[in-house]
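Q: My collaborator sent me two sequences in one message, no labels, and asked for predicted structures for both. Can we handle them in order? The first one she listed is below.
A: Yes, handling them in the order given. First sequence, followed by its C-alpha coordinates:
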Amino acid sequence: MSLLAASGSTRAWRRLRAWILDRDGWTCLVPGPTGTPCGRYARTVDHIVPRAHGGGDEPGNLRAACSTCNTRSGALVRRPGALVVVIGPPCGGKTTRVRDLATEQDAIVDYDDLVEAFGGTRYGRDRLPIRLAGVARAAAVRSLLATPPTGGTVYIVHTAPGRGQVAAYARAGAVFELVDPGREECLRRAARERPSQWARYVADWYTDPPRLPTSAPTAAPSASRW
Protein backbone atom coordinates (compact mmCIF):
# COMPACT_ATOMS: atom_id res chain seq x y z
CA MET A 1 0.00 0.00 0.00
CA SER A 2 1.33 3.42 -0.90
CA LEU A 3 2.23 5.89 1.82
CA LEU A 4 0.61 8.57 -0.33
CA ALA A 5 -2.97 9.23 0.72
CA ALA A 6 -5.72 10.29 -1.67
CA SER A 7 -5.00 13.88 -0.66
CA GLY A 8 -1.40 13.45 -1.77
CA SER A 9 0.58 12.95 1.45
CA THR A 10 0.78 11.29 4.84
CA ARG A 11 3.11 11.87 7.78
CA ALA A 12 4.97 8.65 6.95
CA TRP A 13 5.40 9.76 3.33
CA ARG A 14 6.72 13.17 4.38
CA ARG A 15 9.32 11.48 6.60
CA LEU A 16 10.32 9.12 3.79
CA ARG A 17 10.46 12.00 1.31
CA ALA A 18 12.84 13.95 3.56
CA TRP A 19 15.03 10.87 3.97
CA ILE A 20 15.22 10.28 0.19
CA LEU A 21 16.11 13.92 -0.47
CA ASP A 22 18.87 13.77 2.14
CA ARG A 23 20.13 10.48 0.73
CA ASP A 24 20.31 11.92 -2.80
CA GLY A 25 21.83 15.22 -1.74
CA TRP A 26 18.76 17.22 -2.80
CA THR A 27 19.89 16.71 -6.40
CA CYS A 28 17.55 15.63 -9.22
CA LEU A 29 18.47 12.12 -10.37
CA VAL A 30 15.87 11.75 -13.14
CA PRO A 31 17.75 10.83 -16.34
CA GLY A 32 17.39 12.76 -19.56
CA PRO A 33 17.52 11.30 -23.10
CA THR A 34 21.27 10.66 -22.82
CA GLY A 35 20.95 8.90 -19.47
CA THR A 36 22.67 11.71 -17.54
CA PRO A 37 20.82 12.77 -14.37
CA CYS A 38 19.22 16.20 -14.49
CA GLY A 39 21.32 17.50 -11.59
CA ARG A 40 19.10 20.44 -10.65
CA TYR A 41 18.05 21.23 -7.10
CA ALA A 42 15.39 18.72 -6.02
CA ARG A 43 12.49 19.33 -3.67
CA THR A 44 10.27 16.40 -4.66
CA VAL A 45 10.58 12.61 -4.84
CA ASP A 46 9.86 10.58 -7.98
CA HIS A 47 8.77 6.94 -8.30
CA ILE A 48 11.15 5.23 -10.76
CA VAL A 49 8.49 2.63 -11.58
CA PRO A 50 5.24 4.64 -11.42
CA ARG A 51 2.61 3.57 -8.93
CA ALA A 52 0.23 3.16 -11.88
CA HIS A 53 2.48 0.35 -13.09
CA GLY A 54 2.91 -1.40 -9.76
CA GLY A 55 5.77 0.63 -8.31
CA GLY A 56 5.93 0.90 -4.54
CA ASP A 57 7.32 3.29 -1.96
CA GLU A 58 10.42 1.28 -1.11
CA PRO A 59 13.58 3.46 -1.11
CA GLY A 60 15.04 1.61 -4.10
CA ASN A 61 12.10 2.80 -6.23
CA LEU A 62 12.41 6.43 -5.15
CA ARG A 63 14.77 9.20 -6.19
CA ALA A 64 15.09 12.93 -5.69
CA ALA A 65 13.57 14.99 -8.50
CA CYS A 66 13.17 18.63 -9.39
CA SER A 67 9.57 19.72 -9.85
CA THR A 68 9.92 19.88 -13.65
CA CYS A 69 11.24 16.33 -14.03
CA ASN A 70 8.77 14.92 -11.51
CA THR A 71 5.87 16.45 -13.41
CA ARG A 72 7.19 15.07 -16.70
CA SER A 73 8.14 11.56 -15.56
CA GLY A 74 4.70 10.01 -15.21
CA ALA A 75 3.44 6.90 -16.97
CA LEU A 76 2.68 6.89 -20.67
CA VAL A 77 -0.79 8.09 -21.54
CA ARG A 78 -3.08 6.23 -23.90
CA ARG A 79 -4.03 8.47 -26.82
CA PRO A 80 -7.04 7.14 -28.81
CA GLY A 81 -6.79 7.72 -32.54
CA ALA A 82 -3.11 8.63 -32.35
CA LEU A 83 0.08 7.35 -33.90
CA VAL A 84 2.52 6.98 -31.02
CA VAL A 85 6.21 6.30 -31.68
CA VAL A 86 7.78 4.75 -28.59
CA ILE A 87 11.50 5.44 -28.45
CA GLY A 88 14.09 4.34 -25.92
CA PRO A 89 17.28 2.40 -25.33
CA PRO A 90 17.60 -1.36 -25.76
CA CYS A 91 16.40 -3.10 -22.58
CA GLY A 92 14.46 0.03 -21.71
CA GLY A 93 11.10 -1.73 -21.34
CA LYS A 94 9.35 -0.20 -24.36
CA THR A 95 7.41 -3.33 -25.29
CA THR A 96 6.26 -3.93 -21.73
CA ARG A 97 5.02 -0.37 -21.34
CA VAL A 98 3.12 -0.44 -24.62
CA ARG A 99 1.49 -3.76 -23.77
CA ASP A 100 0.38 -2.28 -20.47
CA LEU A 101 -1.46 0.46 -22.34
CA ALA A 102 -2.80 -1.18 -25.49
CA THR A 103 -6.41 -2.32 -25.65
CA GLU A 104 -8.23 -4.57 -28.12
CA GLN A 105 -8.89 -1.51 -30.29
CA ASP A 106 -5.20 -0.65 -30.54
CA ALA A 107 -2.35 -2.02 -32.65
CA ILE A 108 1.35 -2.49 -31.92
CA VAL A 109 4.13 -2.53 -34.51
CA ASP A 110 7.09 -4.13 -32.74
CA TYR A 111 10.03 -5.62 -34.65
CA ASP A 112 10.78 -8.24 -31.97
CA ASP A 113 7.17 -9.44 -32.00
CA LEU A 114 7.33 -9.76 -35.78
CA VAL A 115 10.50 -11.84 -35.62
CA GLU A 116 8.69 -14.28 -33.35
CA ALA A 117 5.61 -14.24 -35.59
CA PHE A 118 7.78 -15.39 -38.50
CA GLY A 119 9.18 -18.28 -36.47
CA GLY A 120 12.33 -16.70 -35.09
CA THR A 121 13.50 -16.41 -31.51
CA ARG A 122 13.36 -13.12 -29.66
CA TYR A 123 16.81 -11.48 -29.68
CA GLY A 124 18.17 -14.36 -31.76
CA ARG A 125 19.96 -14.35 -35.12
CA ASP A 126 17.54 -16.30 -37.30
CA ARG A 127 18.23 -14.71 -40.68
CA LEU A 128 15.01 -15.44 -42.55
CA PRO A 129 12.63 -14.37 -39.74
CA ILE A 130 14.74 -11.25 -39.20
CA ARG A 131 14.55 -10.34 -42.89
CA LEU A 132 10.82 -10.99 -43.09
CA ALA A 133 10.19 -9.00 -39.91
CA GLY A 134 12.13 -6.06 -41.32
CA VAL A 135 10.10 -6.09 -44.53
CA ALA A 136 6.79 -6.40 -42.67
CA ARG A 137 7.66 -3.64 -40.23
CA ALA A 138 8.73 -1.26 -42.99
CA ALA A 139 5.51 -1.94 -44.91
CA ALA A 140 3.38 -1.35 -41.82
CA VAL A 141 5.13 1.94 -41.04
CA ARG A 142 4.79 3.16 -44.65
CA SER A 143 1.08 2.40 -44.58
CA LEU A 144 0.57 4.19 -41.28
CA LEU A 145 2.50 7.25 -42.44
CA ALA A 146 0.41 7.41 -45.61
CA THR A 147 -2.89 6.91 -43.77
CA PRO A 148 -2.65 7.72 -40.04
CA PRO A 149 -5.04 5.86 -37.71
CA THR A 150 -8.48 7.28 -37.00
CA GLY A 151 -9.78 4.76 -34.45
CA GLY A 152 -7.62 3.02 -31.89
CA THR A 153 -4.11 4.03 -30.98
CA VAL A 154 -1.23 2.59 -33.01
CA TYR A 155 2.06 2.18 -31.14
CA ILE A 156 5.26 1.87 -33.16
CA VAL A 157 8.18 0.63 -31.07
CA HIS A 158 11.27 2.19 -32.63
CA THR A 159 14.45 2.14 -30.58
CA ALA A 160 16.50 4.68 -32.53
CA PRO A 161 14.84 6.29 -35.56
CA GLY A 162 17.15 8.30 -37.79
CA ARG A 163 16.56 11.94 -38.65
CA GLY A 164 14.67 11.12 -41.82
CA GLN A 165 12.43 8.67 -39.99
CA VAL A 166 11.78 11.15 -37.18
CA ALA A 167 10.85 13.80 -39.74
CA ALA A 168 8.45 11.40 -41.49
CA TYR A 169 6.78 10.52 -38.19
CA ALA A 170 6.46 14.20 -37.32
CA ARG A 171 4.86 15.02 -40.68
CA ALA A 172 2.27 12.30 -40.01
CA GLY A 173 1.39 13.95 -36.70
CA ALA A 174 2.93 11.26 -34.51
CA VAL A 175 3.39 11.69 -30.78
CA PHE A 176 6.82 10.67 -29.52
CA GLU A 177 7.09 8.79 -26.22
CA LEU A 178 10.49 8.30 -24.58
CA VAL A 179 10.85 5.28 -22.27
CA ASP A 180 14.19 5.54 -20.51
CA PRO A 181 15.03 3.97 -17.13
CA GLY A 182 18.65 5.16 -17.39
CA ARG A 183 21.90 3.75 -18.77
CA GLU A 184 22.93 1.75 -15.70
CA GLU A 185 19.56 0.03 -15.37
CA CYS A 186 19.56 -0.91 -19.07
CA LEU A 187 23.08 -2.33 -18.76
CA ARG A 188 22.01 -4.38 -15.74
CA ARG A 189 19.07 -5.78 -17.68
CA ALA A 190 21.26 -6.54 -20.69
CA ALA A 191 23.77 -8.44 -18.55
CA ARG A 192 21.03 -10.39 -16.84
CA GLU A 193 18.71 -11.30 -19.70
CA ARG A 194 20.17 -10.61 -23.15
CA PRO A 195 22.99 -11.91 -25.38
CA SER A 196 26.41 -10.39 -24.70
CA GLN A 197 26.29 -7.91 -27.59
CA TRP A 198 23.33 -6.10 -26.03
CA ALA A 199 25.60 -4.15 -23.67
CA ARG A 200 27.19 -2.57 -26.74
CA TYR A 201 23.78 -1.77 -28.20
CA VAL A 202 22.81 0.01 -24.97
CA ALA A 203 26.06 1.99 -24.90
CA ASP A 204 25.67 2.98 -28.56
CA TRP A 205 22.14 4.29 -27.96
CA TYR A 206 23.25 6.56 -25.13
CA THR A 207 26.26 7.75 -27.12
CA ASP A 208 24.02 8.93 -29.96
CA PRO A 209 20.35 9.04 -28.87
CA PRO A 210 17.62 9.98 -31.36
CA ARG A 211 17.06 13.69 -31.95
CA LEU A 212 13.43 14.72 -31.84
CA PRO A 213 12.18 17.92 -33.48
CA THR A 214 11.36 20.59 -30.91
CA SER A 215 8.07 21.30 -32.66
CA ALA A 216 6.85 17.71 -32.47
CA PRO A 217 4.35 16.68 -29.78
CA THR A 218 6.42 14.78 -27.24
CA ALA A 219 5.19 13.05 -24.14
CA ALA A 220 7.09 13.08 -20.89
CA PRO A 221 10.11 10.79 -20.59
CA SER A 222 9.35 7.98 -18.20
CA ALA A 223 10.98 5.11 -16.43
CA SER A 224 9.75 1.62 -17.18
CA ARG A 225 8.49 -1.52 -15.57
CA TRP A 226 10.51 -4.57 -16.59
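Q: And the one she listed second?
A: Here it is, processed independently of the first:
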Amino acid sequence: MPPTPARWKGQCQLGEAFNASSCNRKMIGAKYYMSGYEEEEELVSKMSFRSPRDSSGHGSHTASTAAGRYVTTMNYRGLGAGGARCGAPMTRIAIYKTCWDSGCYDIDLLAAFEYVSDLFAFVIRPFFCVNRKSVSRIFH
Protein backbone atom coordinates (compact mmCIF):
# COMPACT_ATOMS: atom_id res chain seq x y z
CA MET A 1 0.00 0.00 0.00
CA PRO A 2 1.14 3.56 -0.56
CA PRO A 3 2.15 5.70 2.44
CA THR A 4 -0.50 7.04 4.79
CA PRO A 5 -2.07 10.22 3.35
CA ALA A 6 -0.57 13.47 4.66
CA ARG A 7 -4.06 14.73 5.57
CA TRP A 8 -4.46 11.95 8.15
CA LYS A 9 -4.33 13.50 11.63
CA GLY A 10 -5.10 10.41 13.70
CA GLN A 11 -2.78 8.62 16.08
CA CYS A 12 -1.70 5.14 17.08
CA GLN A 13 -2.20 4.99 20.84
CA LEU A 14 0.06 2.43 22.48
CA GLY A 15 -1.08 0.16 25.28
CA GLU A 16 -1.07 -3.34 26.70
CA ALA A 17 -0.17 -5.91 23.99
CA PHE A 18 -0.36 -3.12 21.38
CA ASN A 19 2.89 -1.46 20.30
CA ALA A 20 3.94 0.97 17.57
CA SER A 21 4.33 -1.83 15.00
CA SER A 22 0.63 -2.69 15.42
CA CYS A 23 -0.17 0.32 13.22
CA ASN A 24 1.03 0.32 9.62
CA ARG A 25 -0.07 1.48 6.17
CA LYS A 26 -3.27 -0.59 6.47
CA MET A 27 -4.29 0.16 10.06
CA ILE A 28 -3.35 3.81 10.22
CA GLY A 29 -4.78 4.65 13.61
CA ALA A 30 -5.93 3.12 16.87
CA LYS A 31 -7.21 4.61 20.09
CA TYR A 32 -9.13 3.41 23.12
CA TYR A 33 -11.59 5.14 25.42
CA MET A 34 -12.30 3.97 28.93
CA SER A 35 -13.29 6.89 31.18
CA GLY A 36 -16.91 5.65 31.31
CA TYR A 37 -15.72 2.15 32.06
CA GLU A 38 -13.49 3.38 34.88
CA GLU A 39 -16.34 5.43 36.38
CA GLU A 40 -18.82 2.55 36.34
CA GLU A 41 -16.76 -0.54 37.07
CA GLU A 42 -15.20 -1.40 40.42
CA LEU A 43 -12.71 -4.03 39.25
CA VAL A 44 -10.79 -2.13 36.59
CA SER A 45 -7.86 -4.53 36.91
CA LYS A 46 -9.97 -7.43 35.56
CA MET A 47 -10.57 -5.82 32.17
CA SER A 48 -9.26 -7.14 28.88
CA PHE A 49 -6.30 -5.40 27.26
CA ARG A 50 -5.98 -1.78 28.37
CA SER A 51 -5.28 -0.76 24.78
CA PRO A 52 -6.88 -0.72 21.31
CA ARG A 53 -6.18 -4.47 21.08
CA ASP A 54 -9.18 -6.70 20.49
CA SER A 55 -9.70 -9.39 23.14
CA SER A 56 -12.83 -11.13 21.85
CA GLY A 57 -12.09 -11.38 18.12
CA HIS A 58 -15.14 -9.31 17.15
CA GLY A 59 -13.18 -6.22 16.11
CA SER A 60 -10.53 -8.22 14.25
CA HIS A 61 -13.17 -10.20 12.37
CA THR A 62 -15.13 -7.08 11.45
CA ALA A 63 -12.04 -5.17 10.31
CA SER A 64 -10.79 -8.04 8.16
CA THR A 65 -14.24 -8.50 6.59
CA ALA A 66 -14.35 -4.82 5.66
CA ALA A 67 -10.74 -4.12 4.71
CA GLY A 68 -8.66 -7.31 4.69
CA ARG A 69 -6.19 -7.91 1.86
CA TYR A 70 -6.30 -10.93 -0.45
CA VAL A 71 -5.06 -14.18 1.11
CA THR A 72 -4.19 -17.05 -1.23
CA THR A 73 -3.77 -19.93 1.19
CA MET A 74 -6.57 -20.01 3.70
CA ASN A 75 -8.83 -22.71 5.08
CA TYR A 76 -10.78 -23.64 8.15
CA ARG A 77 -9.29 -26.77 9.70
CA GLY A 78 -8.33 -28.04 6.28
CA LEU A 79 -11.75 -27.37 4.73
CA GLY A 80 -12.67 -24.82 2.10
CA ALA A 81 -9.08 -24.21 1.04
CA GLY A 82 -8.52 -21.36 -1.38
CA GLY A 83 -8.30 -17.61 -1.56
CA ALA A 84 -10.38 -14.94 0.09
CA ARG A 85 -10.61 -11.18 0.19
CA CYS A 86 -12.76 -8.57 1.88
CA GLY A 87 -15.13 -6.00 0.47
CA ALA A 88 -12.53 -3.25 0.01
CA PRO A 89 -8.96 -4.59 0.16
CA MET A 90 -7.26 -1.24 -0.52
CA THR A 91 -9.11 0.51 2.31
CA ARG A 92 -7.24 1.89 5.31
CA ILE A 93 -8.77 1.56 8.75
CA ALA A 94 -8.59 3.25 12.12
CA ILE A 95 -9.71 1.40 15.23
CA TYR A 96 -11.59 3.12 18.05
CA LYS A 97 -12.19 0.76 20.97
CA THR A 98 -15.03 1.88 23.21
CA CYS A 99 -16.49 -1.42 24.42
CA TRP A 100 -15.08 -3.67 27.11
CA ASP A 101 -15.95 -7.12 28.42
CA SER A 102 -18.63 -5.64 30.67
CA GLY A 103 -20.19 -3.36 28.07
CA CYS A 104 -20.10 -0.07 26.20
CA TYR A 105 -20.35 3.27 27.94
CA ASP A 106 -22.02 6.31 26.39
CA ILE A 107 -19.28 8.75 27.37
CA ASP A 108 -16.64 6.59 25.70
CA LEU A 109 -18.72 6.22 22.52
CA LEU A 110 -19.31 9.96 22.33
CA ALA A 111 -15.63 10.73 22.94
CA ALA A 112 -14.68 8.43 20.04
CA PHE A 113 -17.25 10.04 17.73
CA GLU A 114 -15.94 13.47 18.64
CA TYR A 115 -12.37 12.44 17.82
CA VAL A 116 -13.11 11.07 14.36
CA SER A 117 -11.96 13.38 11.58
CA ASP A 118 -13.05 11.36 8.53
CA LEU A 119 -16.05 9.15 7.85
CA PHE A 120 -15.67 5.66 9.29
CA ALA A 121 -18.03 2.73 9.75
CA PHE A 122 -18.68 1.96 13.41
CA VAL A 123 -19.52 -1.54 14.51
CA ILE A 124 -20.81 -1.93 18.03
CA ARG A 125 -21.97 -5.07 19.78
CA PRO A 126 -25.39 -3.79 20.97
CA PHE A 127 -25.99 -6.74 23.26
CA PHE A 128 -23.11 -5.49 25.42
CA CYS A 129 -24.30 -1.89 25.66
CA VAL A 130 -25.01 -0.68 29.17
CA ASN A 131 -27.74 1.74 28.15
CA ARG A 132 -29.30 0.67 24.85
CA LYS A 133 -31.71 3.59 24.60
CA SER A 134 -29.06 6.29 24.73
CA VAL A 135 -26.71 4.38 22.41
CA SER A 136 -29.46 3.72 19.87
CA ARG A 137 -30.26 7.46 19.78
CA ILE A 138 -26.76 8.08 18.41
CA PHE A 139 -27.49 5.96 15.34
CA HIS A 140 -31.08 7.01 14.58
